[in-house]
From TrEMBL, chains A, B:
The active site is at H37 (proton donor). Its main location: cytoplasm. This is Pantothenate synthetase. It comes from Paenibacillus septentrionalis. GO terms for molecular function: pantoate-beta-alanine ligase activity. Beta-alanine binds at Q61. Belongs to the pantothenate synthetase family. Keywords: ATP-binding, Cytoplasm, Ligase, Nucleotide-binding, Pantothenate biosynthesis. (R)-pantoate binds at Q61, Q153. Pathway: Cofactor biosynthesis; (R)-pantothenate biosynthesis; (R)-pantothenate from (R)-pantoate and beta-alanine: step 1/1. ATP binds at residues 30-37, 147-150, 176, 184-187. It is found in: Cytoplasm.
Amino acid sequence: MNICRTKKQLKLAVKQAASQGKSIGFVPTMGYLHDGHASLLRAAREENDVVVLSIFVNPMQFGPNEDLERYPRDEERDLALAASCSTDIVFLPTVEEMYPSKPLTSITVRSVTERLCGASRPGHFDGVGLVVSKLFHLVQPDRAYFGMKDAQQVAVIEQMVLDLDMNVEIVPCPIVREPDGLALSSRNVYLSPAHRTEAAVLSQSLGELAQALNVSSSMTGAQCVALITNKIKETSGEIDYVELLEYPSLRTVAMHIPLDRVLSGQRFIVALAVKFGSTRLIDNALFHVEEVIERV
Amino acid sequence: MNICRTKKQLKLAVKQAASQGKSIGFVPTMGYLHDGHASLLRAAREENDVVVLSIFVNPMQFGPNEDLERYPRDEERDLALAASCSTDIVFLPTVEEMYPSKPLTSITVRSVTERLCGASRPGHFDGVGLVVSKLFHLVQPDRAYFGMKDAQQVAVIEQMVLDLDMNVEIVPCPIVREPDGLALSSRNVYLSPAHRTEAAVLSQSLGELAQALNVSSSMTGAQCVALITNKIKETSGEIDYVELLEYPSLRTVAMHIPLDRVLSGQRFIVALAVKFGSTRLIDNALFHVEEVIERV
């Protein structure tokens, strides 16, 4: 496994692969890897000649009052997991290596960033767009793998790739969950045991919604949101948002008309962000409206 | 000469070149080519295996009251000039091909866009950044060639390439001029005969400034600007701006202190934009301050 700490080392490694006509699969992460990341690495491994993993806690995507400083890090464990997934190249830059001077360039994706985390975390997706754009230019991947837990991130990056004619295929991968349904996240380690137990409510409320929609496609958006909200209110969780939006446009949906009337043939997302103590967790489920509403 | 009208055709042509390990030199233009463009193509020809020219009048970099509709076009003549410079690939997309849907992504470069055309033409450099970024992703050049008549554009693109880790070398090329000094521009065809004669004042005033600075390095910025401004006021030209700034940062300079005291070891630019009738022309000169001030 080739561990690159500088852009120069990475570019050389990538150039060698490209000169041999090898395809490159790329998994950008902030480290503290879990089985969700492993699923991305395995998908990349299956579909490409060379697998590149980046581990970089990107300060530009954290707000001033967010958890940049305490974000969990464990390089040794990350490298062991990377090796166990047959990763070829790991890019492990410092902040100074990625940003030798304060960047004057910003990338903003409008519309898809207006709601959800785009509203709760101002500037977050500009930071994501900047770092992903930099990493794509350094790695020049054929395919890049992202987890659907960050469904809005996937939508933002797909839009950026489309608008900028970036030569990379974005591969969204399913959310990986704990046995009780909690979506894997590096931030789960922050949770107290009591909050960890309660946090299962996120996925469980989405599961109950899926069942309810299966029974009646004529539920309204407002009824869907209320079902989730009421369930979460039975815990100590503090709701940041529970929203139902078109996907991947993330446009708003008429909330008081049955979903099968407003969204025929379309996909929608139910996305939530909830704080347990000082730990903010997100989760979501995608649905497709045909004659009935199916979870996808 | 391979003429590509779609992104798909272009990507195929570029991929073939790359798979043979060939270096790519790229000259992005808005067409109506003149000897300035030819000098870029010749520079690209000398330094690369494959030369790609793009001709695209980019609506995103024109303001609502600018000359998008009447911008001069002559595809046949452009292709003849491209062929005479041994161009290998010409990319000639329509607006619909470049922007199949309204882009939601914008690229903004701060600081270097605050003055000069960045101030006079709001949104102009966002449009330039977007289209150049798209073209770089499509062409994947090793080197890209830009004329120094658009010195601010060069500074903006160099900053974008740096900040986004784009894998391309930006090659600035000298301004090409008519015998009387007028900088070549596709927009010169708009000029009436009388304005065409008067327009030589732009380069002539810059030449006089260079001579004055050669005699006395202790001139202030204000004195330099006044020298140019007074000269232009002898004509019917309507001044948009005459500015003296650091280059390439395009930061302001203390205007009432001798230049050799405020800018030791640095470069500065004197840049002007002047309207003759409805035609807006730009020109500039770069200077370097060592023990004396030298034009570069």
